[in-house]
Amino acid sequence: MRTANPRSIVIWTLVALVGAAGWTVLALARDEEVSAAWMVAAALGSYAIAYRFYSTFIVNRVLKVDKSRATPAERLNNGIDFHPTDRRVLLGHHFAAIAGAGPLVGPVLAAQMGYLPGTIWIIVGVIFAGAVQDMVVLFFSTRRDGKSLGQMAREEIGPFGGAAALLAAFAIMIVLLGVLALVVVNALADSPWGTFSIAMTIPIALFMGFYLRVLRPGRVSEVSLIGITLLLVALVAGRWVAESSLAETFTLAPSTLVIWLVAYGFVASILPVWMLLAPRDYLSTFMKIGTILLLALGVVFTLPTLKMDPVTDFASRGDGPVFAGSLFPFVFITIACGALSGFHALISSGTTPKMVQKETQIRMIGYGSMLMESAVAVMALVAASIIDPGLYFAMNAPAGVIGDNVQAASQAVAGLGYSISPEDLAQAAKNVEESSLLSRTGGAPTLAVGVSEIFSKVTGDSMKAFWYHFAIMFEALFILTALDAGTRVGRFMLQDMLGNVYKPFKKVSWKPGLIITSAVVTGLWGYFLWVGVHEPLGGINQLFPIFGISNQLLAAVALAVCTTLLVKSGRLKWAWITGIPLAWDATVTLTASWQKVFSSDPRVGFFKQRSIYQDAIDDGKVLPPAKSMDDMHTVVTNSTVDGVLTAALALLIVVVIADAARICVKHVRNPGSSKLSEAAYVESKLTAPAGLVATPEEKAELAAAKAADDARVPS
C-alpha cells in the first residue's frame, strides 16, 4: 500500500486550499465585486483533487483495469477502425470528439440564471457524473471489443430494453449531429477567414497521419511541433486570405457549406482512423486547449470582475428572455455537455475504445478529457459573466422581445431589470466591427465578445475585433471535430443495429457495410441540415428545441447500462458510483420532459404552444416568430413533432431504466443467471505508459521492451 510523502501532502493540501478559497468567495460574496479568478481557482482546485483521488479510486478499486490485458485495438488491429494509437494523440482525438457546441454555448445561455448555479453544476456535475460516465462507458466498451452503447444495452439488459436503447440512441445521435452541423454552418457562412483556416486543417492532418504511420512512426513530439507550426500559419494566412482577392473563393453560402460538410463527414467516416480523423482531432486540440489556457491566464492576469448577478430573479420566476423555465430543471438541461453529456457515451463506445492501447490509459482519456471539457464550460461561463449584463441580454434575447434598434433594445433591457444605453450598444458592435449585436442568439457571439474582452485587456482595445472574429472561427473548429467523429460513431451504431439482422454488418470495417451506413448517417443529418438552412422554421431548426433534453436522456441510458454492468460483474457495492448520477439525471430530465410536453406556459410547453398558434390560425392571426400563415402552420407542426418526440424519447428511456432495474434485481437474487458479453482475456504484448508522462517504472518497461525488439531484429 502506497503512503503519501510529506511533499505530496503539502502540495495537495495547497491545491485543496486554493479550491476551497475559490468556492468560499463565490458562495459568500454578495453585493460586492468578485473577480472571475475565484471561479477559475474553484474549478482547477476541484478538478485536480477529483482526478488525483476520485478517478484513481474508481479505476483501481472499482473497475480494476488490467495493463496485462490486450485491448481491442491490439487484438483486432486492422488499420481502419481498430488501431493502437499513441495515448497523447488519442487524448487529443477523444477530447476533440466530445467537445462540441455544448460546453461553449450551454453555459453562456445558462448565465441568464446567474453565474453561481452554472458554476456549481459544471464542476460538481463533471466530477461525480460526466467524467465518471465517460470513463466507465469507455472501460466496459473496451472490454467488449468496442461495441456501441446501444449494442451493449441490448446484450446486457435484454432485447426489449436494449431495442429501446438502440432506437433512442440512434435517433438522438442524428438530432445531435444535425444541431452541431447547423452551428458550424452559421459560424462559417460568409466567413472566408474561418473557412480557409478550417479547410487547411484537413491536408495538415493527412500529412500528420502519414508522418506517424509511414515516415516517422512513433515520433509524436516531432509531428506535434510540425502540426502546431502549420496550424498557426493557417490561422494567420486565413486573415490574409479574408483581406485579399481570394476572399470571394472562401466566402461560401450556407447551402454550399452544407454540401461540403456532408461530403467531409462521409469521407472522414470511411477513411482509416489514423489517416484523417485522429490526427485532425489531435491537431485541433492544440488550438482548443491553447485558447482555453490563454483565457485562464488572461483571467488571472487581468482579474476581470463578474458583472452578472450570482443568482438572478429569472432563476425562480422562470420567465427569462434567453430561455423559459425555472432553475430546476432547465439550467441543468441547458448546460448539458459541460457537466454531463450522453453524446460523450457514444464517443466512449465508438471510436476511442477501438484505439486505446492499454486499459490503464482509460483514466486519463475518459475522466481527464471530460475535466478538460468542463474547464472549457467554466471559461465560457466566465466570458458571459464578465460582460455588461445589459449587453448580455440585448445579445441573447430574441428580436421579438427587444426590438430591432438600439433605442428599443435599451428600453427592453431596462424592463428586464438591467440598464445599457443605446450609445453603449452601438459602441459594443463597433468595437468588434459588427453592424449590430442585437439578438445574436445561440450563445456563440456572446462567448466571442467575452473572449475579446479578456484578450484585449492584455493586447489593447485596438485588437478587440481581431479577437472577436478569432473566437467565432475557434468555435467553428471546436464544433466541427465533434461532427466528424460523431458521424463515424453513428456509422458504428447503425452497423451494430443492422448486424442484429444481417451478420456481416457486425464487422465494422467491412467495406460495403461501412460505405452504406456512412451514407445513411450523413444523408439523415444532412437532410435535416439542408432543410433547416433553407427554411428558418424547418429541418433541424424544428428539432433544435429538444437538443438539450435528448442529450441528457441519452446520458440516462449510458448511466443505466453502466450501473447494470457494475451489478452484473460483481461490483454491486460500487454501483452507487453511476447509480446516484443516474437517479439525479433521470429526475432532472424526465421532469424537464414532462414540463416541455404538458406545461401550461406556451414558452415552455410544446402542446400549449401548438394550441395557441392553432387558435390564432382559426382566427386568421399571425403571431411572432411567424411572418405568414404558412409559418404559422409550420410552428404548429414543429410544436406537435417536438412534443411527440420528447414524450416518445422519455418513454423509451423509462423503458430502458425499468428493464435495467429488473436485470439488476434478478442478478442480486440469482447471480448465476446473469451472463456477461465480455471478450475473453488475451495477454497484451504492447508496452505503453498510462499517463502523459511515463513513470520511472514505465520507462524501465519501455526500455526493456525496446531492447527485446532490437534483439529480435537480425543484424
Cα Rg: 25 Å
Number of helices: 29
What's the average pLDDT? Answer: 90
Euclidean distance between termini CA atoms = 44 Å
User: What kind of sheet is the major sheet?
Assistant: none
- State the share of residues found in helices, binned by percent: over 70%
Which residue ranges are poorly predicted, with pLDDT under 50 across at least 5 consecutive positions?
Answer: none
List the secondary-structure elements in sequence, H or E: HHHHHHHHHHHHHHHHHHHHHHHHHHHHH
- By DSSP, the count of extended strands is 0
The percent range for strand residues is: under 5%
- Characterize the overall form: globular
Structural class: mainly alpha
Folded structure, characterized:
The protein is mostly helical. It is built from 29 helices and no strands. The protein has helices at residues 6-28, 37-63, 72-75, 87-98, 102-110, 115-142, 149-156, 159-188, 192-215, 220-242, 254-270, 277-302, 314-317, 327-335, 342-348, 362-385, 389-396, 399-402, 406-415, 422-431, 444-459, 464-499, 511-534, 540-543, 547-568, 576-598, 606-618, 629-669, 696-712. It is globular and about 80 Å long. The protein starts with 5 loop residues before the first helix and ends with a helix. The model has no long low-confidence stretch (mean pLDDT 90).
Kindly summarize this structure in a few lines.
This protein is mainly alpha-helical and 715 residues long. It has 29 helices and no strands.
Secondary structure: elements and pairs:
Layout: H1 6-28, H2 37-63, H3 72-75, H4 87-98, H5 102-110, H6 115-142, H7 149-156, H8 159-188, H9 192-215, H10 220-242, H11 254-270, H12 277-302, H13 314-317, H14 327-335, H15 342-348, H16 362-385, H17 389-396, H18 399-402, H19 406-415, H20 422-431, H21 444-459, H22 464-499, H23 511-534, H24 540-543, H25 547-568, H26 576-598, H27 606-618, H28 629-669, H29 696-712
